Amino acid sequence: MPGEFLAALVGERDGLLRLIEKAFPQSRVVVRGDEVRIGGDERSAALVQQVFEELLVLVGEGQRLDADRVRRVVDLVKARVPHPAGVFTDGVPVGRGKLVRPKSLNQKDYLDSIRANTVVFAIGPAGTGKTYLAMAMAVEALTTGAVSRIILTRPAVEAGERLGFLPGDVAAKVDPYLRPLYDALYDMLGPDETQRLVERGTIEIAPLAYMRGRTLNDAFVVLDEAQNTSPEQMKMFLTRLGFNSKMVVTGDITQVDLPDGRGSGLRQVRHVLRGIDGMGFIELTSDDVVRHRIVASIIEAYRRFEERGKGE
User: Fold this and answer.
1) DSSP state letter for 23
2) Do 26 and 42 form a contact (C-beta atoms < 8 A)?
3) pTM attached to this predicted model
4) What is the pLDDT of residues 14-66, one digit of tens each?
């Protein structure tokens, strides 16, 4: 094995190697020169070998290994997922030579669902890449000419009656609620290119209320924070779909901010539209969180706490 490949596999001060050994305590891994020798329990050793083979694929494609990536490959190998490296070698080109890659099996399924369907719903907690991956697919569709514009929208629920007290015109008033969409675009396209496309109308970022009465043709449309839509708003939005368009709807049904106990359109739509051809539903979990690892633990702890509360 080439020395640079081996160095990438074991990590600085053998840190990545220690992670693999900890995940498979019944195996022994010994690195001698440019060789990796695996011993111990036969079944466990076979899994360790597969982990190394999958990691070699990633290194061969120029991907940098870190603790999170190694842990995810280990988890997929343990779960008997065929060809785990294939999950991480998928990529969405978003310009400037940058690729946005999935970081979990569910995220890979999410990208595949967007490619295969006209309307996709992605439901899951914060930090699972729901919005970012949808934005990446929108940027790819625009840059390849699959669509002529991107339309990004969110319900400005928190504004409500207080909207009039905020300074500036309507655009300035709703800007705080749309800022996460701008942030994703800035990361992919850069601020200058994003601003140019927004000024030309190629990218439109607007509150959900601005969608009423329109037909959205030749567009990639993303509805973010959809848990804060009412059933009526969700129906209104989905029926805006025009020819040669895609829609991606993202949200977290555990974080509904609608006033007066109003029902969430995202919760309802899962029951109303399942089974319709051309629609995909993806459920993301705390296992798909791509922020700091403690975020996944926080989400899982709150989930258990809320379930205990319901039981009591």
Assistant:
1) H
2) no
3) 0.82
4) 788 888 888 998 888 888 767 788 888 888 989 989 998 899 899 888 888 88
